[in-house]
Amino acid sequence: MINWKNPLSVLALASMASFTTLAQQSPIGVGSPPGWNAAMTRLFGDFKAFTANAELRVLDRAGRESITLPMNFALLDRKVRMDIDMSQLKGPQVPPEQIAELKRLAMDRLACVILPDAQMTEIIFPALTAYVEMPLPQEEVAALNRNFKMDKNPLGQEAIDGHPCAKNRVRMTDEQGQKMEFIVWSAADLKDFPIQAQMNDGGTTVVIRYKNVQLARPDAKQFDPPRGYTKHKDIVQLMEAATKRRGTNTPKKK
User: Helices 7-14 & 235-249, crossing angle to 10 degrees?
Assistant: First the structure.
């Protein structure tokens, strides 16, 4: 069962942790959703709009997959939407009883909409017709407006899912001298779209791969607050409503 007195234990599954925190297997989920942080958006360069199926993988020190999470991904200017089915979250680090509890409460399917200009993330639960708004972490807000110097070093050619790719080591350095490093595969047949990115952190490796990439503008409405949905003040209130709703819909024993 989920520990309802500790909303972070639910957020670790419902909204997940930030890209780097997830890589470190942290149970904290007060950051941004998986597959996104401010620095990674810089890897898209001039690509301001696209849709794709994405897969996030976390590998341990031995190179074994500890977490795999597929999602639908859409980018429009700086806004991002990720549609996630938590029942598809796999790996030895995933507690099946908590996934089962989310399914029982109709909280296993969610959408995370990142709105950098509003410095906010919307977490939407379609089955509950409900959503909450959460502020972006301050470090992400600062990074969104920070200037990065990018250096690219070629690592050769490699095919990813049949796409011929240039493989590069990309180093980002901000104004304070802080550095981040990625390995990026850019697909030549998709106008050099970064079809895969890899980041090493804390002895683990995080890889995100994009498939079925469509270089067209997604519907702008999917980034708006969902019409007809109940807005809850926080995730705790939403969980309480989901629990109450489940109790109301549970058939009484004869």
Answer: 80
